[in-house]
Amino acid sequence: MLKPLIQLYPVLPTKDEAERAALRPIGRNRELYQKTLVGWHDIVRAADDMGVWGAATIEHHFWSEGYEVGPNPGVLDAYWAAITKNIRVGQLGYVMSTQNPIRVAEETAILDHLAKGRTFVGFARGYQSRWTNVVGQHLGARATKSPSAAVYNPSTQMVGFSQSTTKERDLSDDARNRAIFEEGVEIVIKAWTQESFAHKGLNWSIPYPYETGVDDWPLGKQGVTGRLGAPREVDQDGNVREVCVVPAPYQTPHPPVFVSGSGSPETIEYCAARGFIPVYFTNINTAAPLSQRYLQIARNAGYGWRPGQNQCLVRWMQIGKTEEDARERVMRWDSDIFKNFYAAMGRRKMDLSDLYGSIIGSGLYVVGTVESVRQQLVEQWKQFPAEHICLIFHYAQMPKEDVIETLDLFMKHIKPALDEVIDRTMRNAA
Questions:
Q1: How far is the C-alpha of 318 from the C-alpha of 307, rounded, in Å?
Q2: What is the CATH number for 334?
């Protein structure tokens, strides 16, 4: 069965770009943020009632322009856990090249308890320089755009991974960002799964100082930790040699882990070797071959996944009563952020004379009537029968009522067809 996630990019809404300029910096507009927040909760409640598998939010900072006002996912997750019954809450995700991994492990473990296991945890590497470079400075992190990300060439119908046009600094930044990210995730997993642990790595020494341990911990010297703490926490002299991160998560061994990616083979291989769920922010021609790469490496690592299992494909979706209606919805609610954020960031190619064509050309959108969107996704799922789909909406630029209506149409009229594709694939692979 398909497990849908809904991810809302919190766009503070305006009627047009001129109003966004008049309200600058709109990201600090109290009234608009409060209104957006209240409607956000309503959408999550509605998704819960519909049987949607998960609700996610993002970690991005400093969005003065109002396009991604989502700086603290854990706070929202805690509230959503309290107002829902069945839906899982999580993030896509904590940017681990900037985070304190022990704090992330603690926060997500508490969230897991608050939700009694209705959580998942998402990690990301950080591609937005304005905030990644600032918030991650203590770790030496710089934003990266995955220079080895897969690129589909329509003329050859092949996927390539060339880095030949990438600047040396970009490669260096990417390597360090990845190293910081992987160390942070490693520490989170240790904190979740080990009674106590020590770690010596690129940026973190646990305990600190690592060589001597913490030699002035009074409870260690008085024998309290030796009697009541974790068995390996202190040595015979009462020095702290390992740390015991509390609490352990509610789920055993830990919540499902998602990792956002833009098509780099390194990210896919990293996820496959560890049983993590890769999240493909890519078109189907890039995602499908990478999904096979994931499957092969995962099987070599001892995971018995079938095609599409433990993987997630991202799609933006607009459904209209007619094809023209769906197109108008894209231009009304998605074109502003696409032009002023995605394209300006260099994440998407854009032709100003054909903005709609540029959006569709990204391969990330499915647009049309219920019937045509269903057919588009069925054809994609035949190539890559992903267990999860992450549906992204630019709420609140897209009004609450329209988000709920579109999600309802997906759950009632599109998901069953994708369930059939997945079920057929599982039977054939058995």
A1: 27
A2: 3.20.20.30
